[in-house]
Design a protein that fits this description.
This protein is mostly helical and 424 residues long. The chain folds into two domains: 177 residues, Preprotein translocase SecY subunit, CATH 1.10.3370.10; 220 residues, SecY subunit domain (Preprotein translocase SecY subunit), CATH 1.10.3370. Helices cover 75% and strands 5% of the residues. It contains 16 helices and five strands.
């Protein structure tokens, strides 16, 4: 096993195509981190640190911005607008049959058009989020009172930074290895680790050793659980009818239909976070326009997001609900049963057609529950730790670990596929 690993590693390093793809990813990481270090004008550093240390909600949002939000950098929105635009387009496949037909039946041309619409939707989303966040931070004293020209300039800078990251992510997908957007989020998560370790080392005391060991053990346990759950699947046995060709009578082949325990990935967490973020954006935007009632409700909603118990409970419930919701979008038992029937396959002991559809649907519903609960617990780990220990910040939370581990697993699979291709 070890010799196979080193053999594949040697191919990945020596092969010019794979090496260029890896170097392209590293170069994109360097550009991203450079942009994330450039702050927008007028930021009060002390107020910014205080704001993030007392608000787990925006700390989670900082994960999806790749760490740029905590510095109010040019790329403070990260790829969140693009992810939101993609989510809107995925929802459109349910509401509008023409969009679903374009995505599922028109091949590469339909998917290219789908991605193009996602990019177009990203532009107004980025502008709206920039207005909402800058208004909120201005009301919290993190930003000074900016004159209209500077305020509009900051909105343009932040929106353009998000669109630039979207473009870099797509270039990484095309010329690198793996999904570029996921890799950018992973780079932001990884970039926080050295500063977090140095901060822990600076505040290290002998009395804190048990707490550090407990956090390290918890981190290892979470990583192990994420790997196990990400790779876990329920296998439904599939058999094929006998094929009679001329004088030959071939026994039907048997295989299985794999259904992953966590087939939604981190998308339900993004859904839940976007939904919790939406009222804050709308209320702050209306407050800027002069609606006093919106400014008042925005303060109440901000108080809700700072309440660990209330916000954590709402976050957990939404993650579970959206896990079922997104599973119903991405996995259609009717289509699977129909494809099995067309190919002459069947589930042993289950009639083809509607009964197979109901059986597969029941299996998916059963295995989605533990996956949904696992995702919900990962999302609220920072709030659980805060309630038990009083620690308001964790080096890497459950959501960040889930993203990091899944991105690494996906990257390993993609590199292994590239190496296997070169071997053949």
């Amino acid at each position: 096993m070890l010799s196979t690993f080193f053999h594949k590693l040697q191919i990945a390093v020596t092969d010019p195509v794979i090496r260029l793809r890896i170097l392209f990813i590293l170069g994109a990481f360097a550009v991203f981190r450079f942009l994330a270090a450039i702050p927008i004008p007028g930021v009060d550093r002390n107020a910014l640190e205080s704001f993030f240390s007392n608000n787990q909600f925006f700390g989670l949002l900082n994960v999806f911005s790749g760490g740029g939000f905590s510095k109010l950098s040019l790329v403070m929105l990260g790829v969140a607008p693009y992810i939101t635009g993609s989510i809107i387009m995925q929802l459109a496949t349910i509401l509008f049959p023409n969009v679903k037909r374009m995505y599922t039946e028109e091949g590469e041309a339909g998917r290219a058009k789908f991605i193009e619409w996602s990019r177009i939707i990203t532009i107004p989303i980025a502008i709206i989020q920039a207005v909402a966040f800058l208004s909120l931070l201005q009301s919290q004293g993190v930003l000074g009172q900016l004159d209209p020209i500077v305020f509009v300039s900051d909105i343009m800078l932040v929106s353009a930074g998000s669109l630039l990251l979207m473009w870099i992510g797509e270039l990484m997908t095309e010329f690198g290895i793996g999904n570029g957007v996921s890799l950018l989020i992973f780079a932001g998560i990884a970039s926080r680790v050295p500063s977090g370790i140095s901060q822990l080392a600076f505040t290290f005391t002998t009395a804190s050793i048990p707490a550090y060991l407990a956090f390290a053990a918890m981190g290892v346990a979470i990583v192990y659980a994420v790997v196990v759950v990400s790779e876990a699947e329920r296998s439904i046995p599939i058999a094929y009818a006998r094929a009679v060709r001329g004088a030959a009578n071939a026994q039907g082949a048997a295989t299985y239909l794999p259904i992953r325990l966590l087939q939604t990935g981190v998308i339900p967490i993004v859904f839940a976070l976007s939904l919790l973020l939406f009222p804050q954006m709308v209320l702050n935007g209306l407050g800027v326009l002069g609606f006093h009632w919106a400014a008042t409700w925005a303060l109440h909603y901000t108080a809700f997001t700072t309440n660990s118990f209330e916000y954590g409970a709402a976050y957990f419930i939404l993650v579970v609900i959206f896990t079922y919701f997104y599973t119903s979008i991405t996995f259609e038992p009717h289509r699977v049963a129909e494809n099995l029937q067309k190919s002459g396959a069947f589930v042993p002991g289950v009639r083809p057609g509607p009964e197979t559809e109901r059986y597969i649907g029941a299996v998916v519903n059963r295995i989605t529950l533990p996956g949904a609960v696992f995702l919900g617990l990962l999302a609220v780990i920072p709030f659980i730790v805060e309630g038990l220990t009083g620690v308001t910040a964790i080096l890497v939370g459950g959501t960040a670990l889930l993203i990091a581990v899944q991105v690494i697993l996906d990257l390993i699979r993609k590199v292994d596929a590239q190496v296997s291709l070169r071997e053949y």
